[in-house]
Each structure stands twice: as C-alpha cells, then as structure tokens.
From TrEMBL:
High-level lineage: Bacteria, Bacillati, Actinomycetota, Actinomycetes, Mycobacteriales
GO CC terms in record: cytosol
Keywords: Lyase
Coiled coil: none
Regions crossing the membrane: none
Name of the protein in its database record: Aminodeoxychorismate lyase
Family, per entry: Belongs to the class-IV pyridoxal-phosphate-dependent aminotransferase family.
SUPFAM superfamilies in alphabetical order: D-aminoacid aminotransferase-like PLP-dependent enzymes
Amino acid sequence: MVDRVLVSLDGAVRDADAPLLYADDIGVLRGDGIFETVLVRAGNACAIEFHLGRLRRSAQALDLPEPEIGRWREAVERAAKEWGTDREGVMRLVLTRGRDSELSGVAEKVTSGDLAAAVPVPTAYVLVLPVPDRVQKARTEGVSVVTLSRGISIDLAQAAPWQLLGAKTLSYASNMAALRFAARMGADDAIFTSTENRVLEGPRSSVVIARDKQLITPPAKNGVLPGVTQRALFAEAEKAGWECVYKSLFTADLLTCDSVWMMSSISLAARVNSLDGLRMSAPDNAQEIIDLVDRGIERAGAIGDW
Ligand code: PLP
C-alpha cells in the first residue's frame, strides 16, 4: 500500500522519497508561497473546485502568477488515483514563488528585455500523505479547546492587506506555535480571539457555532481564512432549512450557543467538547451537523468566487 504520493504539475508521478526542492526555494527561505490541504476520500479529492478557487485567490493576494487551474486539476486527479480508494489521505497542493537565484536576476532580465525570463518558475506540486491519528478521535469525540489572543484587531485585514490574513500562505509557524501552546495547557486545539474579544478562527480550522436552527461563523473581513469546509456546510445546511449567517461573534457567544465546531478539510466537523476547561455537552442535533458536512464536501460543486 502506498503511503506517500508526489505528483508535479506536469502530471508526472515522482519518487516521494527523492529530494524535490532547491535549497534557495523562496517557499523555504521566506514561507513565500501558498497551499491547500484537501481530503482524499474514496479516490476523490473532496471539494476540489472550492480549493482550486481559493488557491487562485491566494495567488492573487501574493501577486504570484495565475495558477494554471486545468493543470492543477489533472495533477490532483492523478495523485488521488495513485493514492487509491481504500483509505483517506491528506493531499497538499503547494505553490511557491520559485528560486531566489531566478528572482535576483529579474532586474537585469527586465532591462535586457528578456521579459519571459523575468518571472521565476513557480515551484508546484501535489503531495498525499496518510491522515494523522488525531483526526479520527477529533471527528468522533470532539476536541478540547483553549481561547488564545491573536493580539490583532478585527480591522487589521482591511487596514493592512499586506498581512495576507485571508490567504492560505505557507507562513504557518505561528499557527503551529499556538497549537503547541494549547497542548502545553492540556488542550487539543485553540480558538484565536481579537483584541476586541471577538472570535476569529482556529490555527487550522474555521469556527462555526450552532444556535437553534442557525449556523454562525465570523466573516472573512474580520481577518479569518474563508474555509472550504464551512462553505460546503453552509451550502448543504441551507438546503436542509438552516439559516446560515456570517456575523462577528464575542467569546461569550461560544458559551451561550448550543454547540461550537472546528471545521477543517481533514478533521471535518470536530465539536468543541470543552472550552477553557469548561465541559460542553453534545446537543441532540450533533450528528445532523456532522452529516451535513460530510454531504457538503462530497457535493461542493463549481469553482465559484472566493
Ligand atoms: N482557518 C485556518 C487558519 C486554516 O488553516 C484552515 C485550514 O487549514 C481553515 C481555517 C479551514 O479551512 P478549510 O475548511 O478550507 O480546511
């Protein structure tokens, strides 16, 4: 059984144990690039059109060359096929600005009129790995969560677009640090809050709360990544009669609602079973929300606007 699949953007299946990157790749040197994490289930890349739409949007935010979506789609299909149908996998689409040595030559190339060579060739590949052990437990038992200040205002995304808050960039070191910090506090995950005490997102998930027949998530303009899983859930839930709303949430809302969910492409719907040490019991409709996410990611259709 394969446990690693690597496909480059030309569609070639590569040796996943052989080196791929140059040491001066700007994605490595500066985290200057973008990615997507996609669930592979039954040989399909779930909600792939949503992910490709967000990849395109992230590329625009970083002034990267427009991704060739058709080639990405083919590489994704190839990688999913190689992975097979017998178990789920974690697929990553990685796109960096390319090699620093090509970028440093840009000024001379522009003055010499060699414009085609002026933009470095982006590094682009699709990698599939096994689903980590923590995922099954998060889906079935939920996660314990601590709230952590992100130390930023909900106005930052609009006041400082260069912070790239709505793009899925490779600069995830502080998100990983937040998860380690949460683990030291005995928690599985974290919810970031703003300086105004508003709910933002998790280090690798969107926060959605359920209250009566409403699902609520903070809007992207508050400086959170627009989530594929949350969007797929909203599309499906609306069909099932839920009212789905983008609205600022205070941390107090997390305690007064029926349930709080960490939504992400791999763990899907992970219910918050304790928040800052306070136990949160499962509502009667927990399974309905889990099923809506499952159906949502399998049906998520056209590429759409991000
Ligand atoms: N917010 C952040 C910061 C994330 O890293 C992620 C996913 O990795 C999400 C939200 C959830 O997005 P998605 O549902 O597309 O996985």
